[in-house]
Amino acid sequence: MTSLPSVPQRDSLADVLERVLDKGVVIAGDIRINLLDIELLTIKIRLLVASVDTARRMGIDWWEHDPTLSVGQRDLAAENRALRTRIAELESAHQQEDDGG
Amino acid sequence: MADTVVYLYALVRPGVVPDLSPLRGVSGTAVRLVRDDRLACLVSDVDEDEFGETALRTNLEDLRWLERAAREHDAVVAAAAREMCTAPLRFATVCRDDASVRARLHVLGPQAAAVLDRIDGCDEWGVKLYADPSSPVPVPAGGSVVDEHGATGSGTAYLMQRRRELADRAFAVEQDARAADDVFAVLAESAVAARRHRLQDPQLSGDQRPMLLNGAFLVRRGDADSFRALVHAVAYGRRSIAAVLTGPWAPYSFASTEQDP
């Protein structure tokens, strides 16, 4: 039998939290943190999942590599700056030519 | 000194209970037993300033506090589960005093006995499957940017190529999902019980690979080796899928008094 990769000594926080917060026998104690509060917390944690980052990690990232789709605001701004610089250079070169001619 | 309240970890049978004195619970507190006729509970006396209603509300929002306390809770539950049949209680179950704990044990008795019978002699194992990002998306034959007319890099060729890539990726995702279903089914068959949990948040787990399956399996202690071998056989053998086995855990996922969630 091939041995499995050794299980890490320390359980991951995600593994511990999903068991300790979400599973197990539920008894309503006297201190009413209300399970709802814990649920809200785990919902908050879970909400992070539904992000663009996750989509990207899931491999749903084609828009990033598609030049016709990936020109976002920042790229536009950068492109704009580059073009302005280029125009300035050309104008200045043209100016010198004029002056020289 | 601040008042104390009673923190509850897990339900056990009230018979012979091993020495609890080496155990340290949340915030380093000693662990002791509260008994009723049919049921007992592992508890600690904790500071109300930390586990009272107001404090808990704040502390639960603090991920560092939560991590420490959750691990301490799990440490007690896990230690108990190694020694005796143990039904973990949900984190942050807090009562005013022992009388209040006993009243709850009394009400819970029959239900809890059924839970303890169900999980007796078993451990929980976690099996997580991830898509292996290093495995390439299958490329169809002739999948270069050359269309039927031999025009390289034309708009049509580009769009066709793009469409093929998307279809291939969709196919790969579907294949991965089917593989996860298969692995779960095979493992569930050899377990006493099985659950599929929500896929984990990469920000918490620190694992950036796309998760395909987050399974929990209740396995008889004597069958642990063959279960591990089975995980190896069905999950590790698959191209493009990485498996992570965790455990043994106390049977958290199978200790619910309700039936299926």
Describe, in plain words, how this protein is organized in 3D.
The complex is a heterodimer of chains A (101) and B (261). By secondary structure, chain A is an all-alpha fold. Chain A is 61% helix and 0% strand. The longest helix of chain A has 28 residues. The N terminus of chain A is likely disordered. Chain B has 261 residues and is α+β, with helices and mostly antiparallel strands. Chain B has 2 domains: 117 residues, no CATH class; 131 residues. Chain B has 7 helices and 8 strands. Chain B has a 4-stranded antiparallel β-sheet with strand order 2-3-1-4. In chain B, strand 2 and strand 3 form a beta hairpin. The two termini of chain B are 41 Å apart. About 2% of the residues of chain B have low confidence. The chains are: A mainly alpha (101), B alpha+beta (261). The interface between A and B is large, with 42 and 72 residues.
Helix coverage percent of residues of chain B?
40-55%
Low-confidence stretches of chain B: 144-148
SSE string of chain A: HHHHH
Provide the structure class of chain A: mainly alpha
Number of helices of chain B: 7
Topology:
The complex is a heterodimer of chains A (101) and B (261).
Chain A lengths: L12 H10 L11 H14 L4 H6 L4 H4 L7 H28 L1
Chain B lengths: L3 E9 L19 E4 L4 E8 H4 L1 H7 L3 H21 L2 E10 L2 H22 L2 E10 L23 H35 L3 E4 L5 H4 L5 E10 L3 H13 L4 E9 L12
Antiparallel strand pairs in B: 1-3, 1-4, 2-3, 5-7, 5-8, 6-7
